[in-house]
Amino acid sequence: MRVVRPRGLVSAFLGLLLAYPSNAMPQVPGASAHPGASPSPSPAPVPASPGLPTASAAAAGERRDDYRLGAGDVLEVTVLGNADLSRSATVQPTGSITFPLLNEIPVAGLTVGEVQRKMTALLAKDFLVDPHVEVRVKEYQSQFVIVLGEVNTPGRKVLRGGSRLVDVLVESGGFTPRASGDVVITRAEGTFDSGAKVLRLRLSGAFSVQDYVGLEMILRNGDVITAPARQYVTVEGEVQRPGRYAIEGDLTVTGAVSTAGGLTRFGSSDVKVRRIDPVTGKVTITKVDLKAVRKGSRPDPGVAPNDVISVPRRLF
């Protein structure tokens, strides 16, 4: 019995994730990977996909400038013309940094731009004339996501202000050969635009616009990204190519039979689906009349992982 794998799905996206560094990833029309970059013109509107953020939503997501500082982040503070004041400062568990002349400055929850304006105002108030302060994050250490499942290096990954899904997948070494190509994101803080806490993305492997939109998604602190393993259904008996087939999308019984090449000349349209409950171990057998399904008088049931579809020989 042979195993049929999705056509180039995992290998294509593994190649994509390893071939494109985070700053060279093809851009979604209307979205930019870097702040300040001009949006690419789009010749036509991108159709929305249920449960998947639109290109405009991705473009409107959190940018690097919107990163909120937290304990552990290391800032590089430069006061132009005052080298003795310029230095690195770590955000303490109290949420403050220590800086000459100003002592402790609360910065937790602020953006870099807000900290820069705050320090400029404080120095101008009592110490310097027309100070010019530049602040940047030297080390991101306060926000993380967790990557689980079929990636080469799962674990905790640091968010670096505006980190996208593709950035984290690249850092995780891409998909393993067992990956299904699906990515499930569970949001710990807040929800997605739809109000849901869980979002499932299907990376088609065709490098479509919707693939790019999904990969460009901005992640949040606490997100859990799971790359599920590929699941299979077995089709046996009187079909052209009996075997084990990967479940992609909402695969149905007739779809699985078609994937196996359809019925042989001796195949019966009365098929059986054997399913084992993964929790109880209970086995159920469901009969499906393919002719009735084709006529629309019977529903076409979906398949579940490890289902076995048996096509018997016709009785003449």
In short:
The protein is of the alpha+beta class and 316 residues long. Helices cover 18% and strands 25% of the residues.
Structure write-up:
The protein is of the alpha+beta class. It has three domains: 124 residues, Outer membrane lipoprotein wza domain like (Outer membrane lipoprotein wza fold like); 72 residues, wza like fold; 80 residues, Outer membrane lipoprotein wza fold like, CATH 3.10.560.10. It is 18% helix and 25% strand. It has seven helices and 16 strands. The strands form four sheets. Strands 1-13-12-16-14-15 form a six-stranded mixed beta sheet. It has a five-stranded mixed beta sheet with strand order 8-7-11-9-10, with helices on one face. A three-stranded antiparallel beta sheet has the order 3-2-6, covered by helices on one side. A hairpin with a 6-residue loop joins β14 and β15. The two termini are 28 Å apart. 29% of the residues are buried. The N terminus is likely disordered.
Q: CATH first level of the largest domain: which class?
A: Alpha Beta
CATH topology of the largest domain: Outer membrane lipoprotein wza fold like
Inertia-based shape: rod-shaped
Order of helices and strands: EHHEEEEHEEEHEEHEEEHEEHE
The CATH architecture of the largest domain = Roll
Helix proportion of residues, in percent?
10-25%
Question: What structural class should be given to the helix and strand makeup?
Answer: alpha+beta
Low-confidence stretches: 1-14, 18-62
Radius of gyration: 27 Å
Q: Main sheet: which strands, in order across?
A: 1-13-12-16-14-15
The total tally of domains equals: 3
> Taking all residues together, what is the mean pLDDT?
82
Number of strands: 16
Query: How many DSSP helices?
Result: 7
Name given to the CATH homologous superfamily of the largest domain:
Outer membrane lipoprotein wza domain like
What is the strand content?
25-35%
How far is it from the N-terminal to the C-terminal residue, by CA?
28 Å
Q: Characterize the biggest β-sheet.
A: 6 strands, mixed
